[in-house]
Amino acid sequence: DIQMTQSPSSLSASVGDRVTITCRASQTISVFLNWYQQKPGKAPKLLIHSASSLDSGVPSRFSGTGSGTDFSLTISSLLPEDFATYYCQQSNSSPWTFGQGTRVEV
Amino acid sequence: QVQLQESGPGLVKPSDTLSLTCAVSGYSISSSNWWGWIRQPPGKGLEWIGYIYHSGTTYYNPSLKSRVIMSVDTSKNQFSLKLSSVTAVDTAVYFCARRRDLAFDIWGQGTMVTVSS
């Protein structure tokens, strides 16, 4: 299985901050990397697919980069509704696997 | 709009079979998509269980493959999950989701299943 490791596991930030979360795959996955946002008690929401493609309706303050084994998700200017847990997920090979999550908190 | 809704028992006894159904509305399950199940133990991360095509073709997580059966009912526009021989480690929120290309783009709200006697 491909292991996905996110860092940090949690971070404290303020409204307006620029936040970057990284995700590293245990082997190369090309650009088959997705990012999800999950709020407490809710289902995950797809933010970015194929490493850098914003899903429909996702605000442009979210962006993703990377290929191979190293990826990042950046929120350019944090809004109150962005405080949540973020997960990366690889779809290069079965079984699809998720990172352990990064909690973005005040 | 497309909506997915999980349903099933919230409490399952150890060694029994967990059975869940995901009803799809606003979209035909026979369209060119796969349909998946993902679970999340309390306070933990996400685990992919598997996905199924409307033809019945399935792909399962090898870690669960011996205990999982997924099926699809196109006449009811729904798909189902059965997980046998459950133990406490199977306690989780179970989500169904639509797979679009290589991502899960629409999710159900999730249903909590507790394994306990």
Instruction: Write down the oligomeric state.
Output: heterodimer
Low-pLDDT runs of chain B: none
**Biggest interface:** A-B, 22 and 19 residues
What is the 3D form of chain A? globular
Major β-sheet profile of chain B: 7 strands, mixed
Order of helices and strands of chain A: EEEEEEEEEEE
Provide the β-strand percentage band of chain A: over 45%
Overall pLDDT confidence of chain B: 96
Provide the structure class of chain B. Answer: mainly beta
Radius of gyration of chain B, in Å, reads 13 Å
**How many strand segments of chain B?**
11
Question: What descriptive keywords fit this protein?
Answer:
heterodimer, A: mainly beta, seven-stranded mixed β-sheet, 11 strands, 0% helix, B: 117 residues, mainly beta
Commentary on this structure:
The complex is a heterodimer of chains A (106) and B (117). Chain A has strands spanning 4-7, 10-12, 19-25, 33-38, 45-49, 53-54, 62-67, 70-75, 85-90, 97-98, 102-105. Chain A is mainly beta. In chain A, the strands form two sheets. In chain A, strands 2, 4, 5, 6, 9, 10 and 11 form a seven-stranded mixed beta sheet that branches. A four-stranded antiparallel beta sheet of chain A has the order 1-3-8-7, with no helix packed on it. Chain A is globular and about 35 Å long. Chain B is an all-beta fold. Chain B is 0% helix and 54% strand. Chain B contains no helices and eleven strands. In chain B, the strands form two sheets. In chain B, strands 2, 4, 5, 6, 9, 10 and 11 form a seven-stranded mixed beta sheet that branches. Chain B has a four-stranded antiparallel beta sheet with strand order 1-3-8-7, with no helix packed on it. In chain B, strand 7 and strand 8 form a beta hairpin. Chain B is globular and about 40 Å long.
